[in-house]
Write a structure and sequence with these properties.
single chain; alpha+beta; five-stranded antiparallel β-sheet; 6 helices
């Protein structure tokens, strides 16, 4: 679906590429610090200078004859080439893919790279992501009785290096913001179970944790946990 949106149809091939447009080309040559991309009817694009250095990791993986998505960053230069960026195209496509994952409520697995007092740091397809404390599952939520920020941070640091299954809660490519949630899938499951209960029902529960703002209680055969 994504590639279909980006790839050009026959009518679009008659239109000249626009500034900032992502187009698909084919690598036709390489220089010491440049890569040349065949853009079909519109000639050749070149990745060089800063764009070449920034996209080094991407360009290492491709060879002559391979197809590559690039973004037009400048029109024909003195040598008659379009100046294009592989990195910008790659990042834009990555954000589109992440948007699709969010729309499909897809589960993704991330490795926790760091922690601060507000939550956990991760990376999704090369994009920095944040998992707030409030979006941790009930199992992983740091239960610190006095709410001490230092103690919470120490609890969160235990997750560094571990993998977690999460969903995308929010994203904004312009602000480079990607927020994750571990508890969404837990919440979805709980909603299904709670259809068997109604407001006012009295149930037996077990206190599983006490914090400065309340107590965690587990109830029912499914061991649902509430606050």
């Amino acid at each position: 679906m994504l590639m279909e949106e980006i790839a050009k149809n026959k009518n679009e091939l008659l239109k000249p590429p626009r500034m900032g447009e992502i187009i698909k080309g084919r690598i036709v040559g390489r220089g010491r610090s440049s890569v040349y991309v065949d853009l079909g009817n519109w000639g050749t694009g070149v990745i060089f200078g800063r764009e070449f250095l920034q996209a080094k990791e991407i360009l290492k993986k491709v060879k002559e004859g391979d197809e590559l998505f690039v973004k037009v960053v400048d029109f024909e230069n003195e040598e008659g080439f379009f100046e294009v960026s592989a990195l910008e195209a790659d990042r834009e496509i990555t954000w589109l893919r992440l948007k699709e994952k969010k729309g499909a409520s897809e589960n993704i697995t991330v490795k926790i790279l760091g922690a601060n007092k507000g939550g956990l740091l991760a990376s999704v397809s090369g994009i920095n992501a944040f998992l707030p404390v409030s979006q941790l599952s009930s199992v992983n939520y740091p239960r610190v009785e006095d709410g001490d920020a230092g103690k919470i941070l120490r609890e969160l640091q235990k997750f560094v290096g571990q993998e977690m299954e999460v969903k995308i809660l929010d994203l904004d490519s312009k602000e480079e913001k990607l927020i994750l949630s571990e508890k969404i899938k837990e919440t979805e499951k709980i909603k299904e179970i709670l259809e068997n209960y109604k407001a006012g029902d009295i149930v037996d529960g077990e206190i599983t944790g006490v914090v400065d703002f309340g107590a965690f209680v587990k109830f029912g055969p499914e061991n649902i946990e509430g606050l």
